[in-house]
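U., I forgot to send this yesterday:
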Amino acid sequence: MLAGSNAFSPEMLTQNNSVIANALNASDFDYYNNFESGEGEWESRGGATVAISSDNTFEGSKSLFVSGRSDSWTGSQMALGSKFTAGSSYSFSVAVSPSGKKASEMMLSIQYNVGGEAQYGHIGSMTVQPGKWGVISTSEFTLPDNGTDFVLYVETASGTSDFYVDEIAVGSVGAVNDNIVFGTKLGDIDGDECVSAFDFTMLRFY
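Result:
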């Protein structure tokens, strides 16, 4: 798969929502967490509250609920660690679902240090309707070659709404497909709460 391409196959309509199920090379992940066993390495960013929840999930029975946010950059984060090196390229994927009544532009971002000063970058973003799930993903993203202390985090472009995070995967280049939006029903591509001919029409453009 070429970096930056967008792939969607009819077979996905019969699979579960799992990023692993839709991955090109499921064995090529260097990191994976679906929160079934707890928060793992994920922690609060900027004072937000993070907790395991079963109220809204993308895959499995649990997800990470992020609440009590005071600014758009606050959310949840994880230090990437020494396994991930500056100048190297990886694929990234995270499932996100806004809570509340308004759509939110969800963002997967990265913080790193250059000469002791914090720098910030964005891996990907997606506008997702409340109560629905979107997968922010890229088949190739290169960590800045002069950076250190990389931190992966989920935020919003604006606002302080609560949100859910599920099934985070980081792997080799091409290990995941690029952005995919899921409705509340499997196959509901246009998000109108039903699977119809319009969804299959939209499928032709993926």
